[in-house]
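Protocol step 4 of 6.
Sequence for Sensory histidine kinase YfhA (Thermogutta terrifontis) entered exactly as in the expression construct, tag removed. Do not edit the line below.
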Amino acid sequence: MIRVLVVDDSPGDRQWLAGLLARSSDYEVITAANGEEAIRLVAEYSPHVIVTDMLMPGMNGLELVAALRQAFPGLPVILVTAHGSEDLALEALRRGASSYVAKSWAARRLLPTVHQVAEAAVQRAKISRLNQYLQHCGFSFSLASDCQLLKPILNFVHGLLECLELDSGEITRINIALQEALSNAVFHGNLELSSALREEDEAQYFALAERRRKEPPYCNRRVYFRGELSRQKLEFVIRDEGPGFDPSVLPNPHDPESLECPCGRGLLLIYSFMDEVSFNERGNEIRLVKRLSEKGTPEQPVVGPRDAPEETPLR
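Step 5 output, structure tokens:
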């Protein structure tokens, strides 16, 4: 069973968030009223995932992320954002938080987000470390447009990143960025599905995806995923065979208001977790780069996500 710690100074919101998680029998939920209590409960109960509000008296969400990363490296933290906390949330994502959920969308998004982050963390713990002397490796896949392939391919990347001795929390963040980019290539690229349809009717969205996966021309399209990994730099390239897109029509991922926009969530996470993000002219290929220090830990980006070029957003 996955143990989740919910941190919120509001008793009502704390009970509401815990209740959303309690809908699933997979989770054991404990709660804390502030950051100081959260740190004490982490030491006592060893939760697998933290879900925290951003705006709290005393230690806010950003300060809690920093304290947890210092005392419990690798423990994933999910932010719950509300209007007025967007700047803090963006900074927390840059400093080590694993994901976020806008409070206005928590009823629909909290359980799937906790599942995504918890699964990534559990898989990381289960995969054994390979050769500690590994200096460089590369891979190249030609994948069918099948979302069932995403989990095994991400597990494969997990193992490679562990061999390079990356910080465990950083592995989770990189895998979440890759999952967002690969899902984008499958659903929006090859299957040509819109984010608007998913927000209107999620069941219809996935039903249409399943139909198109078996129909030409969609069924003939591939997702090409390659990576070059060393102890200095990680580089991933993902290309689909869809028609491409015009990046200029999408919302700015560096704008704090993007946290409240469900269609821009994947893009915001990718920009927050990677050092470089770029696209080809057609708009059907994305290149992601994470720079590392000599020991395999992330470097501080020279140009952060806030300052990255605005002409290269993802669908």
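Step 6, annotate. The domain at 2-124 is CATH 3.40.50.2300 (Rossmann fold).
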